[in-house]
Specification:
homodimer; alpha+beta; four-stranded antiparallel sheet; globular
Amino acid sequence: MSGRPSRRQLFGYAGATAAGAAVAGGVVALGKDSGTEVVGRGVGPYGEHQPGIAAASPRHAELVAFNLRPGVDKAGLGRLMRLWTGDIVALANGRAAPGDTAPELAIGNVALTTTVGFGPRVFELTGERPPGLDDLPVMRHDRLDPAWSGGDLLIMVGADDPVSVVHAVRRLVADAQPFATPAWRQTGFWNGTGSDGQLVTGRNLFGQVDGTGNPTVGTPEFDTTVWSSDGPDWFRGGTTLVVRRIRLNLDTWDELTRSEQERAIGRKLSTGAPLTGAAEHDELDLEARDADGRLVIAENAHARLSHHSENDGRRIFRKGLNYVQDTGPTRESGLIFLSHQADIAAQFLPLLARLDAADALNEWTTTIGSAVFALPPGFQPGTWLAQNLLT
Amino acid sequence: MSGRPSRRQLFGYAGATAAGAAVAGGVVALGKDSGTEVVGRGVGPYGEHQPGIAAASPRHAELVAFNLRPGVDKAGLGRLMRLWTGDIVALANGRAAPGDTAPELAIGNVALTTTVGFGPRVFELTGERPPGLDDLPVMRHDRLDPAWSGGDLLIMVGADDPVSVVHAVRRLVADAQPFATPAWRQTGFWNGTGSDGQLVTGRNLFGQVDGTGNPTVGTPEFDTTVWSSDGPDWFRGGTTLVVRRIRLNLDTWDELTRSEQERAIGRKLSTGAPLTGAAEHDELDLEARDADGRLVIAENAHARLSHHSENDGRRIFRKGLNYVQDTGPTRESGLIFLSHQADIAAQFLPLLARLDAADALNEWTTTIGSAVFALPPGFQPGTWLAQNLLT
């Protein structure tokens, strides 16, 4: 199959960093070759990698974690993966999944992608655990709620339209019913379109441009960062996902001046440019000092501590979804932090530990949920998700 | 000011009923005349009527009801309306509202509209209550939760993008803080775009085409149905809004066959056409009988009982938003039912009573919240919301 489907998947995001890209508005032209089914808008279900990974955050997404029912074994998990594979192919093409009770809710112009993951406990059933895949240790600043943490399976459905997301999730949850029950659901949204319609990085609910420091999709650096190459054979072309639910205290954040906010981040609120630069994607100057001899990007600034040069050059591919959670009339605002990397222990954990120890943003953020998943590689027509692990 | 801004607001929706409309994709070209501030996409804040009424359901919306703080009087309400008017004008134009602490979250391509309403209790402070504006009586099938019911003030913010909705709501709630506190929040979504990108009526989470039987925006019948003309002077050009939170039991609904579902509705699931017709907007033949002599559109079919010919010709302008509400891993699905009419008691209440008594859909739906609001007419540059009531 070669890398072609995945290159096409990448195109949308690669274009996001270039002004006036041909994919403005997110419409991606897909060819009919390579067995990829063509949809009006979005990415097909097939490829070397699962869809929804090497791509910008979708406008809407829902993540559902499941716990396996007692007694479900490797063969049972394989049956579920075959069912889900059928659903995923249909839904990605705007068709009703087999057994769909509301088939008209499947429509084809919403760039729907479904991504599936396995929590650490799955590998007690299957063996061949990807390296570095363990529940994260509890950090000093964490206030984890079990209700938002862990899980044996994950589905992450993204689309331009929440009706389509809700409908797809309902189908996938229904098919999982004999095998697994939902443990948590997280719903988020992201706007990667600027005021003049061009694609942009997007902002979290603090108003920060969020996700600037990522490797560029399609580059060798991205591939090395994200895709597993030295784990078990079945996992080649897979990746891992860290899901952290981070509550943002907008009220205390808003008590800061804008320059205090910018100092905590190390970037300008207006453009996302580093405090040492002029444009969003300018490289950080971590040595620069102001007239008084103080570091322009402070020792504890988030942009410094999360920069790969502080992490032995190891990177992650960092995305997010905004969320709001209402308890009656009271609203909580936050970020569903998502990080892809080939190896969580090697790439993500040192970064997390450093941020937990010193990040200025810790004063206004609290992580209340945490989960890790291995995302199998993609599948091709005639094959199914994680087939090489489960047969 | 004449009716021109409102005609322009209507254009988007009027186009929705015509195939191949020039507004496909929802981009509405606005002129610079009439003092309407121009936004890249959407409707301006000014007009004879408030925006967000004579329009299709937005892709995303949030409704927040407030209770007035003790001691807030007519003058205080006027101060809040002046504050909100300033916010609404800025937000509709993609600008930061005064005092916005995250001004970059205000962007201009998201068709953001804000609509404001007053609950019945407000008129104990102001007098000049619109006719027919009273809390609805509790229906036999209602299972009302006070947490989703009532309220002194309403804001309804709609846009193409939930980040923009959340940001606008945060601003409006913050400005209300000295005067009123949130009583409930309801978040919903709607997809009025078909698979080939054309505008369509949209579907609820049962999969039904929902909202077909409305008067056409821009027609005299629409105007008579929606806009108040014989109430108090200040309310001329205003309307009322009924908000009903309706839980849908998808599980038991899905146990029906498709033909049982269609018989309960009286319309085809595929197209929304009446069971006596071929196309969505075909008129219902309420007398048609099948070969066995049975009514094709059953006595208790929703489409029959909600048809205006059964309601002494009185109509409503009916919209909806889908919602999902998660309690941990458990999901509730439903519809935020929205109905505009000049007079609730005269137009809506008889319809509600008839549906409560006999609607086949009652078996799979439960109303859990209910509220009514008077929506003041629109405002022009230099004036503010409900100024004629509050000065």
